[in-house]
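Before the break, one more example. Copy the sequence into your notebook; we will annotate it together after we see the structure.
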Amino acid sequence: MKSNDTSRREFITAGLLAGLAVAGCSTKNNPFEPDAAEQVKPSGETVKLLSVDGEVIEVDKAFLKPVPDLPAVANDIARKGISNKKFVMVIDLSRCKSLKKCQSACNHMHHVHPGQNWIKVYPMQDAEHTAPYWQPTTCMHCDEPPCVKVCPVDATFKRQDGIVLIDSDRCIGCRFCMAACPYSTRVFNWEDPGLPKEIADQPYSCESSVPQKKGTVGKCDFCPDMARKGELPHCVSACPNGVFFFGDMLEDSVTNGSETFRFTDLVRDKAGYRLMEELGTKPSVYYLPPVNRNFPFVNDNPKS
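Here is what the structure looks like once it is written out:
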C-alpha cells in the first residue's frame, strides 16, 4: 500500500483516471470491485483513487481497467519526439511503377478525406530528350521548415527527431503553412472527413494524425507512431517494389523492409539528391535518380 504522502501530481492523475473509468458506473461503495461474473484475482497491491463521489478509495490494481480512448502518447511527448533519432527517407525513382500502393495505404491508415492524397505520384521528365519517370512526393520534413516559421499558433512544429507534424487541436486553418511550403505537400480539409464514429470520437493524436478535422491542414507525417514501435511507415511496407527506404541518419541505416543499406553509402553511390536544395530548407527526403529503371514508363491516367 502506498503511504499517505503520495505526491499531489500522482493523486490528481489517479483521480482523473478513476473519474473516467467509473463514469456511468453503479452507486456501490467501491465501483471498481468486479461483478460476480468477472473472474478477476486480486493482486494484493492497492492504489488510492478519487471516486466520482469525491471519496478517497483504495482499489486493487487488478481491478483497474485501461481507458481505451486515450492517446497512446501524451501530447507533450509527441511534440518532443523520439530521443537520439534523426529520421530520413530515400526514394528510388528507378523502381517506381506508379502502382500507388503507397498512396492508398497512407490514405487508409490516416483516414484521409476521399479525393485527397498525402503522397502524390507525379509524372516527370527532366528534359525533352530524356525519358519520363514517376516521382512519389511526400512532406520533406525539412530541417529548416518554412511552414513552422509562419504558423502563428505553433500548430505546425518540428521535433527533435527531425519529423515535422501538425497539431490539429491548435490549427486555426489560416493556411499560412500551405503558402510557405515550396513542395505543395499539404492539403486543407474543406469538408468533414466523413469518418466512422469510433474514429471521429477519438482524441486527436499528433503521432497518428487521426482523426482529421474540418478546417485544418493535413500532410504526410512519416508515421511516427509506427517508428515508436520500431516499425516502418505504411508507405514503405505497402510498396511491392521497394521504392521507399526509411531509417535513422544517426545510425546511418535505411531499409525498405527487405533490403538494408548504409544511408551515406546509398546516397553517395547512387548520386542521391534533394528537391530544391537551393532553397535552404534541408529536406529529410532524398531521391535516387531514375537510371537503370525496373519498369518502362506507362501513363494510364494522364491526369494523375
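The chain has nine helices and 13 strands. Residues 19 and 52 are 6 Å apart (CA to CA). Try to locate both features in your own notes.
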